[in-house]
Design a protein that fits this description.
188 residues, 0% strand, mainly alpha
């Protein structure tokens, strides 16, 4: 009789370990999927930017530095792999795009341009999707990282070498601030 009780306890423990391991794997896959959704939206934004920049360039010749920065960020994007590197590039790009959008307010002929209007709307929609994807990713990462830290799944996570994932966050205080635009002497 005692042998059956011990066997039952061992079977329950084995099933519990398998269940926790599978739960951790599923959570890790969800994190990867959530990241891939961000990546898709960021790539979509990077694909829209050349057309947007070309449309705006003629009206804002004095914003050459911003356009060059956007181009450099697009090039850097292909070489980054980690979440923190991509988050940093994303923050820099968002700041540059906010600057262009703010400066465009002083160009009525640009705002009236249909191509600019369409591309601006596409970028706004993409920015909204990126924002949602970031939030979803961070929620998914938080759930996964919590599983890695709570008992008893933390024991299983340690045994099978599960690693925590990074949250998608602003890299600097500068990225958290609103863009300041000075129309001073650069106005047409």
């Amino acid at each position: 009789m005692i042998g059956w009780i011990i066997l039952a306890i061992v079977v329950i423990i084995v099933f519990a370990i398998i269940g926790m391991y599978n739960g951790l794997v599923q959570s890790r896959v969800k994190v990867d999927n959530a990241w891939s959704q961000i990546d898709v939206q960021l790539q979509r934004r990077f694909d829209l930017i050349p057309n947007f920049v070309e449309t705006v360039k003629g009206y804002m010749a004095h914003e050459k530095e911003t356009f060059e920065k956007i181009s450099a960020l697009r090039t850097s994007w292909a070489n980054t792999q980690s979440v923190s590197e991509k988050a940093n590039l994303d923050n820099q790009l968002s700041t540059a795009l906010k600057t262009i959008m703010a400066v465009s307010e002083s160009y009525p002929e640009l705002k009236a341009n249909q191509n600019f209007s369409d591309l601006s709307e596409e970028l706004r929609n993409t920015e909204n999707k990126i924002s949602f994807s970031r939030q979803f990713y961070n929620d998914t990462v938080t759930r996964y990282n919590t599983k890695l830290q709570v008992f008893p799944s933390n024991i299983i996570a340690g045994m099978f070498n599960f690693k925590s994932s990074d949250l998608f966050k602003a890299e600097s205080d500068e990225a958290r601030k609103n863009v300041k635009v000075d129309f001073g002497s650069n106005n047409k």
